[in-house]
Amino acid sequence: MNLQVKHPLLAAPASIGGLELKNKIIMAPMGSNFAGEDGHTTEQLESYYEERAKGGVGLIILETSAITWPAGASMPYMIGFSKDEFVSDLNSLTQRVHQHGAKIAAQLNHSGKIAQEDTIAGRPIPVPSIPKSEPSDMFGLLTQDEIMNFIKAGGPDGKGPRYHELTIDEIKIEINHFAQAAKRAKLANFDAVEIHAGHGYLISSFLSPAVNKRTDQYGGSTENRARFLIEVIQAIKQEVSADFPVLVRLDANEYRIDGGITPKDFLVTARLAEKAGADALDVSSYGNTSKGIAFTEAPLVHEPGGFLKYARMAKETVSIPIIAVGRIELDVAENGLKNKDFDFVAMGRKLLADPGLPNKISSGQEHLIRPCIYCYVCVSQIFINKPMMCAVNSQLGNEFRNEKIIFSTARQKNILVVGAGPSGMEAARLLAMQGHHVEIWEKDKDIGGTVRVATLAYEPNGQLIKYSAKLPQRTQSNNKEKYGGNDRKD
Q1: Which of 71, 91, 301, 476 has the fewest beta carbons closer than 10 A?
Q2: Residue 106's domain spans which residues?
């Protein structure tokens, strides 16, 4: 059956520099804590990314990785690019992604003042200037068990991070670390690299006037504060090759940070990055993470399309491709591409909820996309140093497991599921996928269980009920739902 593609521009091919992508959908970089304690990839991590490649995404931007691992890491299980010994495992990852027609970029980073693992180990943390300390307003909301995950962040003496203001010679060393990490990325057959110059990490600390109080050539004016980033771009191009694509993630604004990055600063830096050789800009923002509300302003924006105004600004300022990100719904993405407000759309949480989203768009089966309900379960795990998970996709992080809860059988069975809440509907979906005939009996006249109540407080929860109710060939008789045969493929 030929189904109409509702969003043809999203599904159409495009390129970044000389890198050809099969569509304009990019997987945004998101920390997972699926890597090993030793900085290497794991089967869990590689399977997680392979599943997104199978789902049809054009480009995967790898989660933030440590160019000087174990130094500069912000999570306990973070990928390393600091040693040649990492190349073999990284090559395994790229091979698994490439076999499904997707491309992959390594996101290179030093976490700077957010390098939690340096604090724990008592290592000095490189910064442009010694940052001010600000207590978090979130600890009063955590359980004792959750707080215990943070106790070690006080360091070996309980006094917190040891900051070290970089000398000019040391800045040059850090620039070389980025260049050498990019060289390893290319050896491991990554298709591009992204320099993380946002979200409070080392490069963004140089860019932010709220943090960078230097009086030398790396401080003061916007141009001077951008010098570190510009020299990183140039060093990578020189070390690897001029035609190897280099993406740059930039903050367009810093929320609730007095004297932080402004859109005016961002546009100056964007022009300088383009001139230095950047092949695309990934437009994000940052907020004061000591304020709980700021995190949902940026970087994990809760307002739909909250960063689109910044993407438009960048598109009007530079000629290289612009990647828009931040809770962008499909219709909004398509219209933005049509209006040339941006060139690519990065999706994070949506691809956690449903890795098959791109294929469903290109095949005209958008009605089968499992919705993200923007509940923050995924990122909340990272806050407490746990592996990422998803409230609507139980397979996230379990893609590497071979065992199946429900086995198919040559003989189709008639199965009854009692209760049409989210668990019952998911059980019916999985059983139907294996070819069984399934009925759900529900005592209430409406399906959804307690999710119906949750929807009253938070409307996106209702999308999960709508998704579960869209099983093909479903018949309803009073309070019975019937799911027939192997008719749903996701």
Answers
A1: 476
A2: 8-383
